Amino acid sequence: MAIKYGRPIESRVRFTEVEPEARPSPGLDLTTRPRRNRRADWARRMVRESVLTTDDLIWPMFITDGSNARTPVPSMPGVERLTLDHVVREAERAAKLSIPCIALFPYTDPKLRDEDGNEALNPENLVCKALRAIKKEVPHIGILCDVALDPYTSHGHDGLLRDGVIVNDETVAVLVKQALVEAEAGADIIAPSDMMDGRVGAIRAGLDAAGFLDVQIMAYTAKYASAFYGPFRDAVGSSKTLTGDKRTYQMDPGNTDEALREAELDVAEGADMIMVKPGMPYLDILWRIKEAFGMPTFAYQVSGEYSMIMAAVQNGWLEGDRAMTEALIAFKRAGADGVLTYFAPKVAELLRRQSGG
Ligand code: PBG
Fold first, then answer.
1. CA-CA distance, 10 to 2, in Å (whole number)?
2. Strand, coil or helix: what is 205?
3. Helix (H, G, I), strand (E, B) or coil at 145
4. Which of 34, 170, 184, 212 is the most buried (most CB within 10 A)?
């Protein structure tokens, strides 16, 4: 060998002994050195197990009445409530970025909110108008719509409140109607986020009976009663109105087995996809559910997770792009098939730049 360790042989002959670097490790006699696979970018790429692509992203958007306006949500830096014209433009942007699906959340005029959330059933409500407008202009993007009454009720709860109790069966009957109104307006995926018992089965039956055989259901299967939804409630305007908390229907953060039982029910009732929410604090749940059911399984990186990262970035405490991608790859590693994330456009643009596109 004429060249060893990049040094011409002539220079080597001046040494009587082998250079220290060329000697076998003086310390450890290791057959396996995991660092070998990490020594260069190409090698790291070659052995990487989980990758994040734009196909993994679902982009949640907040919509509001009016035209040509974008209203920042102060607790979610970089996120805005959009009027319909802007929502259509952002849907176009999503399609151009190859983001497969967007999710629509309405900020309902407080005057339209009432005790029973009747606006949810109005075929001319914000979500339905946005669905029709987007389907017309951007027909090939998937649109997911929540089913739950909280953006429409004066008390901010997801279901009907009777004598201080969120009643289950009566709420489910309304949710089925809400799902039908959304499906009629063009929703591709119905996502019940209310955590009532039996809602997936009832919605499936309702959709099928009305001929919406192809409308998918992504169940918020394991949705925990979480503090991390705070900024979302600011965005949809339900933080001020919410009376009490949602612990009688959303899950207790101390439970795991219960999440598996919820998943079992949703799968049996006909869910096409299941979801765990919040995301990062519940990666163990995501992992167990994916392992147990092998269903298309999604994580919702919720508003509070987004806001935590953004707040730290704004303070100069975290590097934004790296924190964002690391948090998202964690969902893939834990078994997610995709992630609902407010970072969707940002990360899609980053991935595009990285691939030289
Ligand atoms: C409504 C709903 C919530 C979220 C999605 N759908 C809030 C809640 O249950 O109070 C939270 C999303 C987020 O925090 O980003 N049922």
1. 9
2. helix
3. strand
4. 212
Ligand 1 atom with least separation from CA of 302: 15
* Ligand 1 pocket member 305 (CB < 6 A): no
Q: Please check the confidence at residue 20 and state whether its pLDDT lies above 60.
A: no
- In short, whether 175's Cβ falls inside 6 Å of ligand 1 is no
Contact 203, 190 (CB under 8 A): yes
SS3 of residue 49 by DSSP: coil
219: left (phi over 0), alpha (psi -120 to 50) or beta: beta
Q: Ligand 1: distance of its center to the CA of 44 in Å?
A: 37
Choosing from 129, 246, 277, 332, the catalytic residue is 277
Q: In the prediction, which pLDDT does 356 show?
A: 85
Q: In sequence order, what are the beta bridge partners of 165? A: 162
Long-range contacts from 35-43, C-beta under 8 angstroms, 24+ separation: none
pLDDT digits (tens, 9 = 90+) for 58-82: 999 999 999 999 999 999 999 999 9
Nearest-Å Rg of the Cα atoms of the chain is: 25
CATH topology of domain 51-354: TIM Barrel (3.20.20)
Tell me the one-letter amino acid at 339: V
- The pTM assigned to this predicted structure is 0.92
pLDDT at 240: 81
Return d(Cα 157, Cα 328) in angstroms, integer: 29
Specify the pLDDT at position 2: 45
Helix (H, G, I), strand (E, B) or coil at 354: helix
What is residue 283's DSSP assignment?
A: H
| Domain map (residue ranges) of the chain | 51-354
Please give the helix or strand (H or E) that residue 174 lies within, else none. helix 168-185
Does residue 342 have its Cβ closer than 6 Å to ligand 1? no
Q: Does the annotation mark 346 as catalytic?
A: no
Active-site annotation holds for 129 = no
Percent share of the chain, pLDDT over 70: 93
**Atom number of ligand 1 nearest to Cα 231:** 14
Cα separation, 109 vs 257, in Å, equals 39
Q: Is residue 11 over pLDDT 90? A: no
Catalytic residue from among 223, 246, 290, 332: 223
